[in-house]
Specification:
300 residues; mainly beta; 8-stranded antiparallel sheet; 1 helix; 45% strand
Length: 300
Amino acid sequence: MKLYPEREVPLGGVRGVYVERTLPQMGLPTVGAWCFLDRFGSVADAPGASHDIDPHPHIGLQTVTWPFDGRIRHRDSVGSDVEIAPGQLNLMTAGRGIAHSEYRVPGAASGNGLQLWIALPSSARDQVPHFEQHRDLPVFELPGLRATVLMGSLGPVTSPAAAYTPLVGADVVVEPGAAVDIPLRSDFEYAVLVIDGTVVVDGLPVRPGPLLYLEPGRTSLPVSTTGGTHFVLIGGEPFEEEMVMWWNFVARSHEEILAARLAWEAHDIDRFPDIAGHTVDQRIPAPPIPPLRMKPRKRG
């Protein structure tokens, strides 16, 4: 087990809005195929900061949006226009290219939740983009524990959301005073992010903030809590493919990143169609390419 610290970062393209980021980490680019984990609403934003995320592109990944409160309006370039509320899952599969926006619904709570990315394997990363919303997710239960399965499988319970590598994502609530063994797959690696309360994981107390990484080889995970806890469990088969990750793109090479950036900046509507209800000047411009050749992220 190893704790990786959270870090406060400005949300790209939105001045004054900050998130707590726990993945990727130096030496830990992925947990299974999970390659990005932000908690929004957990740190103070600048006064008057806008939480609306204007149109921006993605390639080679899936975005998972999981709010704890508030409501978010999602629009994208394949024609989706939906609102998401707590307990519901938005899953967008970018494939070869998609653009989307996420706006807070006026009058809703300020918003607190997670956004995660899943790297698509080579067999799926150039597929036609699509969007799913799941309003009724399955639940895995043990005495004192209730886990909503967002992605993949936990024990015998499997989410209906499309997954392209063996993985799991679950929102877990443990009652005060409970001690439970969560079943794991020995070929998976896992990570735990505590949202509220303190959970003792295999003897180690973990509080909100850092990401606890668990190496493969475990068949169960003992967790306990005195006052009750809420955490997210992610995991999967270690992602062995090389991955170049920059801005909103997950690719395999520097050249792929350049091509995607050029397509976005050139307003290539074949790759990144316009989003209904948005004007061209709302599109978030791509940042400058760094003055070096981007290389695959490595472990260790």
